[in-house]
């Protein structure tokens, strides 16, 4: 991506001055729409002109973002799911350093670092999302005499019981990201954070080609037997709705699902459970929502960006975004009043992981875009194929680790 954009950025026409801050994003579910309403309110209260460009799905949004830069009509802001360097190496970014003074004192170090490009603050964090959560419909599990599975073997045993009873054990959607998230859960749950980093982040060939990874791939593919045929084209929020409605028992996804349960009026601990994925214990695998600010088209737009960045980081606003969307606040001084048991557990485990070094950042934020994409392609193909063996997938995964941008 960066080569194509870098080559063509020089040909872009000058952007028009005085225009609203156009925010490109993929927040299109019910709870995400509520978060957008809060962002909109914050922008307007700060006197910042605001408009939105929604796109369904992160992949589609990233594609449109590239297209808009190449056509000379970039947005002022965009939701991103990759390291800021991926964009910073390709297109001009804003400099929020002046307004960001003091942010390091109120943000976890791992998050503060991810907002930087070449020594400048270029993005604003919105909230932290735990990725490794097993969401369960408690009434459905109890009806079948089951407890929330804490290990993969317990998960498979529960899946067999539910499947025999005509219940979808695991709700999942059609995107590559949802399958890749399950793969990450298996590797983290069976190998732990150090194995995960050495194998997938650092591309340790011995681990990628070893017997542990082979078994992880087999168990990942085994999960598919507990999903349903209707997953093709299904959005993650539709999969969450299956759990809420009692049509499926479980879902492995991020804690944005918490926002959907809350919107449906469900109570954590009574109607649903939000345990870390099997084998994870208190391990916190996370990403965080952030808004990247691109180089302003005028002095007025630069001023609008600065005012918006300052407003988004105000304690009350930052906390409100997280409560609505289902994650936890980015600020270490956040007041957790009004957050449910799922968010409080996530917050506790996030702080513990920060202290003991087990906190694990999402692969997409640690890997070059090409490597991450190659991994996802292998896992997606392995999930979809009835013929590819775990051994073949393992060899492809090893080759994917050598792909660089």
TrEMBL record:
One of its GO terms (cellular component) is periplasmic space. Coiled coil: none annotated. It is found in: Periplasm. The keyword Signal applies. Keywords: Signal, Transport. SUPFAM superfamilies: Periplasmic binding protein-like II (SSF53850). InterPro entries: Bact_solute-bd_prot1, SBP. The keyword Transport applies. Residues 1-18 form the signal peptide. Belongs to the bacterial solute-binding protein 1 family. This is Probable sugar-binding periplasmic protein. It comes from Roseateles toxinivorans.
């Amino acid at each position: 991506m960066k080569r194509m954009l870098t080559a063509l950025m020089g040909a872009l026409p000058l952007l028009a001055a005085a225009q609203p801050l156009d925010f490109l994003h993929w927040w299109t579910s019910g709870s995400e729409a509520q978060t957008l309403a809060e962002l909109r309110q914050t922008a307007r209260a700060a006197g910042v002109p605001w408009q939105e460009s929604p796109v369904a799905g992160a992949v589609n949004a990233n594609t449109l973002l590239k297209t808009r830069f190449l056509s000379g009509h970039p947005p002022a802001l965009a939701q991103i799911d990759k390291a800021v360097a991926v964009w910073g190496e390709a297109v001009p970014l804003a400099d929020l350093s002046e307004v960001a003074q003091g942010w390091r004192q109120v943000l976890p170090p791992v998050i503060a670092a991810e907002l930087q490009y070449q020594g400048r603050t270029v993005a604003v964090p919105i909230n932290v999302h735990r990725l490794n959560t097993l969401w369960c419909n408690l009434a459905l599990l109890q009806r079948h005499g089951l407890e929330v599975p804490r290990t993969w073997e317990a998960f498979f045993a529960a899946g067999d019981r539910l499947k025999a009873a005509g219940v979808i054990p695991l709700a999942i959607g059609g995107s590559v990201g949802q399958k890749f998230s399950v793969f990450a859960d298996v590797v983290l749950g069976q190998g732990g954070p150090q194995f995960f980093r050495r194998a997938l982040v650092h591309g340790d060939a011995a681990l990628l080609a070893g017997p542990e990874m082979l078994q992880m791939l087999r168990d990942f593919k085994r999960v598919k037997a507990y999903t349903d045929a209707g997953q093709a084209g299904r959005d993650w929020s539709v999969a969450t709705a299956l759990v809420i409605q009692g049509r499926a028992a479980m879902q492995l996804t991020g804690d944005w699902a918490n926002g959907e349960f809350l919107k449906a009026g469900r109570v954590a601990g009574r109607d649903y459970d939000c345990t870390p994925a099997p084998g994870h214990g208190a391990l916190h695998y996370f990403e965080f929502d952030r808004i990247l600010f691109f180089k302003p088209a005028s002095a007025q737009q630069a001023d609008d960006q600065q005012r918006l960045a300052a407003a988004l980081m105000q304690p009350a606003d930052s906390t409100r975004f997280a409560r609505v969307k289902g994650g936890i606040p980015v600020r270490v001084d956040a007041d957790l009043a009004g957050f449910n048991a799922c968010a409080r557990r996530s917050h506790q485990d996030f702080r513990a992981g920060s202290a003991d070094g087990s906190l694990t950042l999402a692969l997409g934020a640690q890997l070059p875009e090409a490597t991450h994409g190659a991994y996802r392609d292998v896992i997606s193909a392995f999930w979809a194929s009835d013929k590819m063996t775990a051994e073949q997938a393992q060899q492809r995964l090893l080759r994917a680790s050598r792909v660089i941008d």
